[in-house]
Write a structure and sequence with these properties.
- By secondary structure, the chain is mainly α.
- The chain has one domain: Ribonucleotide Reductase, subunit A (Orthogonal Bundle), CATH 1.10.620.20.
- The chain is 64% helix and 2% strand.
- It has 13 helices and two strands.
- A two-stranded antiparallel ribbon has the order 1-2.
- Helix 4 packs parallel to helix 8 and helix 9 crosses helix 12.
- The two termini are 34 Å apart.
């Protein structure tokens, strides 16, 4: 594994006269600057993402669920509506933990920059909060928690997406893996694209549309509010991941070959089809003005936006059939837990 220690010898390791030159910092494969020395910052974008994440701090237990419980126990939800809710809880309940595991076990080890590691620590905590959220929802609605949390084994459309992501983590977890070679850098970038661009940037957004469609109709409002907060977290996650990917590209241009870009394009196209299959499973007949055909357009539209963010050509040219999602994703507003009004978000610099 590449490390970022100034020196391995005791005398030099305790040399207090050494000063960190920020220009010596690198996102990966840094052998010149101690990974523990945060200041002076080089990658200010990483610190900004960390500060913005702190401003969106929340806990699921602060969100009241009484109206959701009453609606769930009533006969006012159709079987298809209950199916959508359960499928989304089943996917997100384990997907969030997969992301957290990937950060802690795979990404953190190989990122040799302290400001990026600071953000990764915050993100890992948020993934734990998100997993807590789905436990809180299941407990509130008195759902069979084992059924919900085991869907990633039993529901093909969920299992296929999770297996797709776990393959990308497996390569990084190989004890012999290193980012010291061009091939190693490409493998690491593939993992980052798989989790930040695909999992958090594509897979999650269909679920956000489905669950927030209930919230728009003033139904399942507790779950909807929690999904709003999760989506705001995930938007920052994705923005950080894109900046990390683009930064590694800039520092390792030899890895960003046409052949490698074609491999990434193929991965994203495969992910789009997996997500469309998931939408068809969630919406076999359509509800709330939603249907699988609209989700094909939406997933393709989102994929194009993600491709643009990492400097690749768009693939689909599909429209956005859910323009209201752009307003929901807007981080210029934040719900105050202790009031019913909306307060301004502290930093409006994040755009989707």
């Amino acid at each position: 594994m590449s490390c970022c220690n100034v020196s391995n010898t005791p005398a030099e390791a305790h040399d207090l006269t050494k000063r960190v030159n920020p220009e010596d910092k690198r996102l990966i494969n840094c052998k010149a600057v101690d990974v523990n020395q945060l200041m002076p910052l080089k990658y200010k974008w990483a610190w900004e993402h960390y500060l913005n994440a702190n401003k969106n701090h929340w806990l699921p237990s602060e969100v009241p669920m009484q109206k959701d419980i009453e609606l769930w126990k009533s006969n006012k939800l159709t079987a298809d509506e209950r199916h959508v809710i359960l499928r989304n809880l089943g996917f997100f309940s384990t997907a969030e933990s997969l992301v957290g595991n990937n950060i802690v076990l795979a990404i953190f080890k190989h990122v040799t920059n302290p400001e990026c590691r600071q953000y990764l620590l915050r993100q890992a905590f948020e993934e734990a909060i998100h997993t807590h959220t789905f436990h809180y929802i299941c407990e509130s609605l008195a759902l069979d928690e084992r059924e919900v949390f085991n869907m990633y084994h039993e529901v093909n459309s969920i299992s296929e997406k999770d297996q797709f992501e776990m393959k990308l983590t497996a390569e990084i977890l190989d004890p012999n893996f290193s980012t010291d070679t061009v091939a190693g850098v490409q493998t690491f970038l593939k993992n980052l694209v798989g989790f930040y661009v695909i999992m958090e940037g594509i897979f999650f957004y269909s679920g956000f549309v489905m669950m927030l469609s209930f919230h728009r109709q003033n139904r399942m409002t507790g779950i909807g509010e929690q999904f709003q907060y999760i989506m705001r977290d995930e938007t920052i996650h994705m923005n950080f991941g894109v900046d990390l990917i683009n930064g590694i590209k800039e520092e390792n241009p030899e890895a960003w070959t046409p052949a490698f870009q074609a491999e990434l394009q193929q991965l994203i196209e495969q992910a789009v089809e997996l997500e469309i299959n998931y939408a068809q499973d969630c919406l076999p007949r359509g509800i709330l003005g939603l249907n699988a055909g609209l989700f094909r357009e939406y997933v393709q539209h989102v994929a194009d936006r993600r491709l643009e963010r990492i400097g690749m050509a768009t693939r689909y040219g599909s429209r956005n059939p859910f323009p209201w999602m752009s307003e929901t994703i807007d981080l210029g507003k934040e719900k105050n837990f202790f009031e019913t009004r909306v307060t301004e978000y502290q930093n409006g610099s994040l755009t989707w």
